[in-house]
């Protein structure tokens, strides 16, 4: 099958290149539109309402008037206009929400980000303090603190402070974890080494990466503050001399609004709290999609799965893996469409070679097949189906996280590019191999684990006596064999090998390739073998797919490709290896 489909446009991404901050903004979606619309309307009401609705405290001599006429939302028992009260109360609640949001975000930033960046004793003290604050139950503490503050000092500022003090710790934990990961990134290390000041490294290198998390936490803190303040006011512990939605509910309860069927007194403030909470939750969900692009992938994948199910073109008879119209895009400032509409079928026991120059998308394709791709990489469409030995078809892109964990390495394993450096230098080989078995076969007795580890080492031609060795005591070739042994441990049906021999000298490379072919014959797993070295693939593979610029431009039997390359790019690739141009006649295998 030759796949020469035209480049799929990624139209909505175009503006990203113009504005690097665009990537940090939520994508426009119905959820976001509804959330922003509702929240915006409520904020406008809180801002403009008090200016046009008049004094909410004016007492009139006609109490509990139902909505209509002069008083659109009716009056309280003392004849105060509910609409005017609602406008002022909305403003009061928004003020508290905003104040608490800012204070809680600053506190979590200081204790989470600064602590984690400073490290050492500072981090330990900050982290201990955050943990203590986290385990103290929030609402009871708020009630106790608010209860101890005399009513005349219990203004909006005091209540906001109390709510912020009790509401920052969980966010600080998340920020700390994220900062610990960011501070070890190369660009942060480079900034430090180049002598940038600490505040600058935090503000310029770290904080921009935390913006979506901070925004999400801010929104959450605002919702929580409005709800908590309403709860406190309802208990009579809210801000004194101020009007909030909670105090409105408190007075409605004291005025027996429910018993008097005066629904217009308590329903509007309750409704505004519920709508504002719902609106911010919708906004927060859209921000979550920036932090975790997997969320937006999921919806799209579910759509794609339906499309694939209705399009059940007959696959190849003995297929173990079918990739259909797979598209992967790196959603970076300038989106890179790294895999374009790729369709491949891997037969049971087959070695499928994936060739192409550096940057053509081989690794991206391998990672996407395995669901190992990480943001900004995103599978925008297509399907990956694994056809299990027992006849079941597994839709790999739709697997839930737990199912994926059970699938990977058991059914489909991977030997990574530069894999020989992937071994942990301070742990003996035995422990590293046994870890895989402990994770995937928790019930396996220790003696069987030991036996299996020795067995796979033997399979790849490494003396089992080496089980106790540390990686640095092994040669590069041996380490590579250990990595292949690790991929074999659970007897997978498919093994993806991404340039597994690139760093090795030609002789060791040849030995390992022979080993792979022998193992495939013995254990009959299928292999996707990735390399830019087309001659090597011609020797090793049954079929070869040639990739260029993210597309599979030719897909054919190895011998056929060698003798009759059809695509000009394949011919160009073959011509670039001098040994293949001579008169050898047939492919040497
Ligand atoms: N994190 C990323 N963000 C944006 N673009 C990326 C990212 N990673 C890879 N790319 C781009 O995706 C394309 C495919 O990269 P990929 O690593 O899959 O190529 P490859 O064929 O495996 O190359 P190599 O043989 O050198 O490993 C390249 O154009 C690359 O620049």
Automatic annotation (TrEMBL):
Positions of transmembrane segments: 32-52, 96-118, 125-149, 155-175, 206-226, 232-251, 263-287
Compartment list: Cell membrane; Membrane
Stored PROSITE patterns: ABC_TM1, ABC_TRANSPORTER_1, ABC_TRANSPORTER_2
Pfam families: ABC_tran, BPD_transp_1, oligo_HPY
ABC transmembrane type-1 domain boundaries: 94-284
Superkingdom in the source lineage: Bacteria
SUPFAM superfamilies, sorted: MetI-like, P-loop containing nucleoside triphosphate hydrolases
Record keywords, A-Z: ATP-binding, Cell inner membrane, Cell membrane, Membrane, Nucleotide-binding, Translocase, Transmembrane, Transmembrane helix, Transport
PANTHER family for this protein: ATPASE AAA-TYPE CORE DOMAIN-CONTAINING PROTEIN (PTHR43297:SF14), OLIGOPEPTIDE TRANSPORT ATP-BINDING PROTEIN APPD (PTHR43297)
Family the entry assigns: Belongs to the ABC transporter superfamily. Belongs to the binding-protein-dependent transport system permease family.
Protein name: Dipeptide/oligopeptide/nickel ABC transporter permease/ATP-binding protein
The organism of origin for this protein: Lentzea rhizosphaerae
């Amino acid at each position: 099958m030759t796949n020469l489909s035209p480049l799929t446009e990624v139209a909505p991404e175009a503006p990203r290149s113009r504005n690097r901050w665009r990537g940090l903004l939520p994508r426009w979606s119905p959820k976001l539109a509804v959330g922003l619309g509702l929240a915006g309307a409520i904020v406008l009401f809180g801002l403009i309402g008090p200016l046009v609705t008049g004094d909410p405290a004016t007492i009139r001599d006609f109490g509990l008037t139902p909505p209509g006429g002069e008083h659109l939302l009716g009056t309280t028992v003392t004849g105060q206009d509910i609409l005017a009260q609602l406008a002022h109360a909305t403003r009061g609640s928004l003020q508290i929400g905003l104040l608490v949001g800012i204070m809680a975000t600053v506190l979590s930033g200081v204790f989470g980000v600064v602590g984690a960046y400073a490290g050492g004793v500072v981090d330990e003290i900050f982290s201990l303090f955050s943990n203590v604050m986290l385990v103290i139950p929030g609402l009871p503490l708020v009630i106790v603190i608010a209860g101890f503050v005399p009513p005349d000092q219990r203004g909006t500022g005091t209540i906001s402070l109390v709510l912020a003090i009790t509401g920052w710790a969980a966010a600080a934990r998340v920020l700390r974890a994220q900062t610990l990961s960011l501070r070890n990134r190369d660009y942060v290390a480079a900034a430090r080494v180049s002598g940038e000041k600490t505040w600058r490294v935090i503000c310029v290198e770290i904080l921009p990466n935390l913006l979506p998390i901070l925004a999400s936490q801010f929104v959450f803190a605002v919702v929580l503050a409005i709800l908590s303040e309403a709860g406190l006011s309802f208990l009579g512990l809210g801000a004194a001399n101020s009007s909030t939605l909670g105090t409105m509910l408190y007075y409605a309860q004291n005025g027996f609004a429910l018993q008097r069927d005066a629904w217009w007194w308590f329903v509007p403030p309750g409704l505004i709290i519920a709508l504002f909470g719902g609106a911010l939750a919708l906004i927060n969900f859209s921000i979550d999609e920036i932090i975790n692009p997997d969320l937006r992938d999921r919806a799209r994948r579910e759509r794609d799965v339906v499309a694939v199910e209705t399009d059940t073109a007959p696959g190849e008879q003995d297929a173990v893996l079918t990739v259909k119209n797979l598209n992967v895009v790196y959603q970076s400032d300038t989106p890179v469409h790294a895999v374009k509409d790729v369709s491949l079928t891997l037969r049971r026991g087959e070695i499928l070679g994936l060739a192409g120059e550096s940057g053509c998308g081989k690794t991206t394709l391998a990672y996407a097949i395995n669901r190992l791709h990480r943001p900004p990489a995103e599978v925008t469409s297509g399907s990956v189906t694994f056809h299990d030995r027992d006849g079941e078809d597994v839709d790999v892109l739709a697997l839930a996280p737990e199912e994926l964990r059970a699938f990977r390495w058991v059914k489909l394993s991977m030997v990574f590019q530069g894999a020989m450096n992937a071994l942990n230098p301070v742990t003996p080989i035995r422990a590293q191999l046994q870890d895989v078995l402990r994770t995937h076969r928790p019930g396996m007795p220790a003696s069987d684990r030991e036996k299996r580890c020795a067995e796979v080492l033997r399979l790849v031609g490494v003396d089992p006596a080496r089980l106790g060795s540390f990686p640095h005591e092994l040669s590069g070739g041996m380490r590579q064999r250990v990595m292949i042994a690790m991929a074999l441990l659970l007897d997978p049906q498919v093994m993806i090998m991404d340039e597994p021999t690139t760093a090795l000298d030609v002789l060791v490379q040849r030995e390992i390739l022979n080993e792979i072919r022998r193992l495939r014959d013995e254990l009959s797993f299928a292999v996707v073998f990735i390399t830019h070295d087309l001659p090597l693939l011609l020797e090793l593979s049954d079929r070869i797919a040639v990739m260029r610029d993210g597309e599979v431009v030719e897909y054919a039997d190895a011998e056929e490709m060698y003798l009759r390359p059809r695509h000009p790019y394949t011919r160009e690739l073959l011509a670039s290896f001098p040994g293949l141009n001579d008169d050898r006649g047939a492919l040497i295998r």
